[in-house]
Amino acid sequence: MNLIPQEENLEQSNALDQTTTTPSAPEATTTPEIPAETTPELETAPVTSPQASTSETDAAPSATEETTDAPVATQDSVEEETMSSDPATDLPSEEELQYQALLNKSDADIAKMSCAQITDDVVLLLQSGELPPRSIIDRYKSVFYSKMNSYLNTVSEENAKLRADAEAQEIRLKELLNDFKERNRKRQEEIAEEQRANLEIKRDLVERLRKLLSSSENFSVISKEYREITENWRSTGAVPPGDMRQIQGEFEHLREQFYDLQQINHEFRDYDFKKNLEAKQAIIQRAKELAESTDVTQAARELQDLHHRWRDVGPVAKELRKDLWKQFQELSAQINFNNQEYRNQQRTQEGENETIKRGIITQIEAINPNEIHTFKDWRTFTDQIKELQAQWRRTGRVPRAVSEELYLHFRTACDIFFDKRKEFMRDRNKLISEQGDRKRAIIEEIEQIVAEERWPEGHSRIQELQTEWNELIHTNKHQALFKRFRTACDTYYTHHKALYQAQREESKEHIAAAKQLLARAHELAAIETPSDADREEAVTLQRDFHQLGYMPRKTRRKLQDELKEQMDAFFNKLRSSDRPRGDRRDNRNNRRNFAPTSPYGEEYDKIQRKKEQLESDLQTYSNNKERLSVTSSAGENLLKMLEERCEAMQQEIETLDLKLRDIRKEQRAQQESDTTAPESEQPEEK
């Protein structure tokens, strides 16, 4: 009797294996850091280390893999099912197509969506007839928070609006996630209950197979019942994680004993062994490819599926079992070793990233917003914060245990800085608006001075207004006002410069006249025996020199010194020719630098010369004060000092005028008294 092999249709078995639901292993790639939720994490399959047990059952997958041991159908049954199926009824509905499209969306596709669109997709997933896997919901949530955080990292008006919309959508998303957590919890409870029921079914199948091995029935009966047991085993779903390895090991052991029975048909056994050998060799070949793959995380995830398929494939010839299993085990160990090495590197990198991000937070917190008072400093520190934010984004992920704490710490530090900056800018904009009114008033006053053509006398006021303008905030918002201000000042100084140029031309004439007087002074100083006419000419020459108009201060001082030197020489000669050389009184007069030049005596001439000198100095100070441009506090102090000095000199000149007037009155009174006195009382003429 020809028996149907256990794995006759290997392609159908592999196709059924591909439909098995296997939860995704934790992703190794860097994902955006998002606030962790309190939802229970799905159990992930343990990673088989290179030091795994050498027994074949040690490679069993995690219990969370919902293994579906589908029954192997005969060729006739497959054809009958194919013939009886209605293509129209097999077409998926529009809702199913939409659900599958949402499941198959990549992270890149989700990243192109807005936060509102992401939330809408989560709503559609939860409204479908089948609850989506946890990994799908986590993908949508991860991209949502990644986009939401990106709006915070770049400060702009558009991002502020997107951020506000994302925060509104976040409330809606959290409600959906809470609903998903509750439904997922119920699903896990149902799965656990179903796994316990499946465990009881598989225990019954193990007992049936154990009794079948000791049965004395003919082989056809035993084969038929064995086929029924294996089909029922495959159709039974997953069992609890703690019992899966034991029950699977018992079943595999009994199945191998079944093939070792002497009375089993050799044709049946050899055919099954051949098909199983081909299947396991294909699995080993795929494991070799995974061992050389650069995507170690995906390789470790697919390895779990290979172990699942390995268990579903029946046994091979006894002499090949250990060798095949050894090859597969070594490749599994290599794949898991690669994955473990990658995860160790990842943990090391995450630790370094944590150190970098804590350093970034420290740098941000070191910037005290309360100590920043100028717009320039705010701009400098804002650029520093943005650079640190960019460095934060470039830095990879950190350990999950500190991810939320670090991000909240970072966000709080940034919020403190930018909230204070926002407050400063609000106050500054208010001050700029107020100062704009003051700048307009300054411009109007300068324009009024220009309109009234107050060129010399308006100079000091113009300088005061310029100083005040420079103390106000300089901003591009007042660019139009600055152009107007500069135009008004340029107009004033154009006219003022013309007046100053005219004054310089006039000073040249005064210098020329002074040099002529100085030349005559040299001539007088060269006279050996001066006469009274020479003396009168010298006095007139000094008076004419002091009455000259504006000259540069240094030039005037130099000419005055030269004139004084010549006049001293002249009057020394004059005194020497008028008095005997031995006269003590004349010797005392020789020590003086001037001689009487007026009928009111020596004291009067001394006061007169002092007054003239003060008037000359006053004129010089006044001219310098008008040309002085005050642009600093030191300039203001200098201007104030000049004004005080001019006022003091003016008061001293007025005092000297009073003294001169008193001397003249006294002299006239004395002359009148001498005229009216008797001749006997008049002094004798010497």
Features:
686 residues, 22 helices, rod-shaped, single chain, mainly alpha
Termini separation: 183 Å
Residue-averaged pLDDT: 75
**Main structural class:** mainly alpha
For the biggest sheet, the summary is: none
Q: What's the number of extended β-strand segments?
A: 0
Q: How do the helices and strands follow one another from N- to C-terminus?
A: HHHHHHHHHHHHHHHHHHHHHH
Helical fraction? over 70%
Number of H/I helices: 22
Rg (CA only):
56 Å
Strand content: under 5%
Q: Low-confidence spans: pLDDT under 50, at least 5 residues? A: 1-89, 580-596, 677-686
Tell me, briefly, the overall form. Answer: rod-shaped
Report a brief summary of the structure.
The chain has 686 residues and is an all-alpha fold. The protein has helices at 10-18, 75-84, 87-90, 94-103, 107-111, 115-127, 134-153, 157-213, 219-235, 241-260, 266-291, 296-312, 318-366, 375-394, 400-451, 459-471, 479-525, 532-546, 553-578, 584-590, 602-627, 633-676.
